[in-house]
Amino acid sequence: KKRYNITLLPGDGIGPEVISIAKNVLQQAGSLEGVEFSFREMPVGGAALDLVGVPLPEDTISAAKDSDAVLLGAIGGYKWDKNEKHLKPETGLLQLRAALKVFANLRPATVLPQLVDASTLKKEVAEGVDLLVVRELTGGIYFGEPRGIKTNENGEEVGFNTEVYAAHEIDRIARVAFETARKRRGKLCSVDKANVLDSSILWRRRVTALAADYPDVELSHMYVDNAAMQLVRDPKQFDTIVTNNVFGDILSDEASMITGSIGMLPSASLSDSGPGLFEPIHGSAPDIAGEDKANPLATILSAAMLLKYGLGEEKAAKRIEDAVLGALNKGFRTRDIYSNGTKLVGCKEMGEEVLKSV
Amino acid sequence: KKRYNITLLPGDGIGPEVISIAKNVLQQAGSLEGVEFSFREMPVGGAALDLVGVPLPEDTISAAKDSDAVLLGAIGGYKWDKNEKHLKPETGLLQLRAALKVFANLRPATVLPQLVDASTLKKEVAEGVDLLVVRELTGGIYFGEPRGIKTNENGEEVGFNTEVYAAHEIDRIARVAFETARKRRGKLCSVDKANVLDSSILWRRRVTALAADYPDVELSHMYVDNAAMQLVRDPKQFDTIVTNNVFGDILSDEASMITGSIGMLPSASLSDSGPGLFEPIHGSAPDIAGEDKANPLATILSAAMLLKYGLGEEKAAKRIEDAVLGALNKGFRTRDIYSNGTKLVGCKEMGEEVLKSV
Ligand SMILES: CC(C)[C@H](C(=O)O)[C@@H](O)C(=O)O
Ligand SMILES: CC(C)[C@H](C(=O)O)[C@@H](O)C(=O)O
C-alpha cells in the first residue's frame, strides 16, 4: 500500500476551515485508490507569528521539505497588516516558496458550464474559457537584489527593487510551460514587456530558442499590457500562458476573476524534484473566517492537483474533480457562487457533499 | 487673439490619418473660440527611422519642446519589430516622454451610454464606468539603472532592470492624482505591491503622508493583483487610480478594454511646466493603415484634452467633446464600435461628422 506524508499548513482566516475539509476529501479519495496519507499540521503566516514570532518557523520548513507534498490554506489578515516586512504573513509565504524551490506556479482559470453566470463577462465571452497561467515563482523582482529603501546624496529616500532573470531560470520555467501546453491544447503564449525591459528581451530570446524542442507546440509572444486587455476582450484565445513572477501575479488574478468564481480555483507550485506546494488562489478572507461561509472547493481542487502533479496519483485526483462537479451538478453552492435556483450551503456542508460523491 | 504652436507627430500606421482629422477639428474648435494654432509636423517612431535612422530625431525634440503642446498619432509596426532596442519606434516614444519630462499620464476610461454594448462586460457591470488612471510615466522600471543583459561568473546570460522611485517622484505624481481626484468624485485609490516590493513600501508611505494635504479626497490602497481583479469584478468602484509606470501600463490597458471602445480613449501626459503630450491610447494598427477604417475619435478627444489640460482652453475642449457625442448620437460608428442599427462610416467620414457639430 502506498503511503505519503503530507504537510498541512492551514494558515490564517478561512485557511483552517478549508484545509480540514480538503484533508478529509484527500483521505477518502486516497483510501478508495489504495493510497494512505500521514498528515502533519504546521503553522505558517499570521498563525506562526502569533505562536512563535516569525511567519515561517524552521520546524515548518523542515516538515515541509521532508514531506511528499504540502497543502496550504491561506495566509494574512488585518491583524498583521501593519507589521514590518520581515514580520508579515506574506513574507512567510515567499520564504516557503524559496525554501521549497517551487519555481513553477500553475494557475488554471476555467469557466465551468455550471458557473458561467458568475462571471462579470458576457456569457458568450466567458463560456468555455479554459486557460492556465504558468507563473515563474522564485525569481524576478520578488527576490532580486539589490533591493531596499536608502537615502541618496540629496538626503532623499529612494525605494528600489531588481527585476532579474538568469538564462537557466527562464529555460526551466519555459520547459514546464511547453510541456504543460503539450498536454493541453498545444498553444503557448509567452507574456513579457520586451519592447521596454532588458530582462524581457532575454526572456523572449530564450523562450524562442527553446521552441525548437517543442515543434508540436504553437508559440506566440504578447506584451503584458496587451495580455491584460486580451484577457478581457477574448479570454478563449488563450490556452497556456507563461510569464514572470510579477506579471504572473497580476495576470493570473485577472484571469481568475474572469471566471467569476475565484473560490473555485486551485494552484500548484512545483520544483525540479522535492515536494510541491498546493494552495487555493483566493486569500484568507478574514471577514468571513470561522463563519462557515467559505467556499472549500478551491482547496479541495488544490488537493486534486496535489494528487495529480505532486504524487502522480491521477485516479485519486480524478475522483476529487468528479466529486466537485457532482456537488455542483446537484445544485449546491456556497455564497460566493450562489445564484437563483441553486441550494445555498455553508463551507462544511459543501465539504460533506463532495465527500459523499468521492 | 491667442496663438498656440502645436507640434503634430503623426507617427506610424493609422497615425497620419487620425492626426490629419484631429488637426482640422482642433482648428475649427479654436477658431470658434478665438484661438489660433500654428501646426508643425515632425517625424517620430518608424516614420523617423525610415527618414533619418533614429526613432526620435533631435529636430523633433526641439520642435516639441518649443511648442505649447504636442499631439501624437501612434507609433510602431511590423516593419521595425525586429530592430534592436535603440532602433525601435517604441524607444522614440520613451525618449520623447523623458525629453518632455511628462511624468503624469492621465488615462480616462469611460463607458459612454451610447457604447455600453461594446464592452465584453455585462451591461450592469459596464454601464456608468468612469475612471481615470494617473500613471507615473518617466520613472520606475522603464528608466531605472542599472539595466541590461550581461554574462555572469558562470558564463550565463542574465537580464536585469531596476524598479526605482525617489520620494520626490512619488510625491509629484501623487499630488497630480490627489488634485485630479478632487476635481472628479474625490476618491483616490493608490495601487502598489507593498506586500512584496520595497519601492512600493516607500510609494505607499509617501502617498499616505500627502493625504493630510487633501482631506477632501478619500484615499485607499490596493495591491496591483487585486486591482487587476477588481477592474473586472466591479470597475464602477473606481474613481481615480494612481500607480507606477509599469503597473499603470497594465492596468490602464485593462481598464480601457473594459470600456470595449479602445478606439475612443484619449490620454494626456503632463510635466511640471513645459508642453504636454497628447495621444490616443490605441496603437498604430498597421493592419488597417491607409484603409480609412481607423476610429479617429480617440485622437480627436486627445485634442480636447490638449485644449483642456495643455492650454487651459476649456471652452474649445468642451466643443470637441460635445461634437463627438453629437456624432455618436446621430448613430455614426466606425467599424470597431459598430453595432446593429447604427451607421457604419470610415475614418474620414467620422471626422467630417464631428467637424460639422463642433
Ligand atoms: C500574498 C502575495 C505575496 C502573493 C504574491 O504576490 O505572490 C499572492 O498575491 C499570490 O499571488 O500568491
Ligand atoms: C509602446 C510602449 C513603450 C508604451 C508603454 O509601455 O508605455 C505603450 O504600451 C503605452 O502604454 O503607451
TrEMBL record, chains A, B:
InterPro entries per UniProt: IsoCit/isopropylmalate_DH_CS (IPR019818), IsoPropMal-DH-like_dom (IPR024084), Isopropylmalate_DH (IPR004429)
Catalytic reaction equation(s): (2R,3S)-3-isopropylmalate + NAD(+) = 4-methyl-2-oxopentanoate + CO2 + NADH
GO BP terms in the entry: L-leucine biosynthetic process
Boundaries of every Isopropylmalate dehydrogenase-like domain copy: 5-354
Pathway listed: Amino-acid biosynthesis; L-leucine biosynthesis; L-leucine from 3-methyl-2-oxobutanoate: step 3/4
Pfam families: Iso_dh (PF00180)
Known cofactor(s): Mg(2+); Mn(2+)
Enzyme Commission code: 1.1.1.85
Keyword Ion transport recorded: no
Keyword terms of this UniProt record: Amino-acid biosynthesis, Branched-chain amino acid biosynthesis, Leucine biosynthesis, Magnesium, Manganese, Metal-binding, NAD, Oxidoreductase
Subunit structure: Homodimer.
Alphabetical list of PANTHER family matching this protein: 3-ISOPROPYLMALATE DEHYDROGENASE
Family as reported in the entry's similarity comment: Belongs to the isocitrate and isopropylmalate dehydrogenases family.
Protein's UniProt name: 3-isopropylmalate dehydrogenase
Organism of origin: Brassica oleracea var. oleracea
